[in-house]
Design brief:
about 100 residues, about 0% strand, mainly alpha
Amino acid sequence: MTEPGRPEQADPAGGAGLAEQAGAAPAPRARKQVLLRLDPAVHDALAAWAAGELRSTNAQIEFLLRRALADAGRLPSAARPIPRRGRPPKAEPPVPQEPESPA
């Protein structure tokens, strides 16, 4: 749904792109951006809660919305998991292999 006076833009990840037609892996779907108007006290409470759980306010809102959808049985099966942010996990060092002894 677009606002009055604003042209509707095509979703860049919507249709089959050249990569998909060529048999390559599909491009990730673009995340939707929405404008959310909140009471300042509600925003402050959400921001404090998010900081306590080491999340951004935006990530906290998405987390809460997904949990509410799941609790209500309305979370779509096509919904992808929340992308992990931050530093990637450390790779475990390779296990040293013992040299084979001559027989």
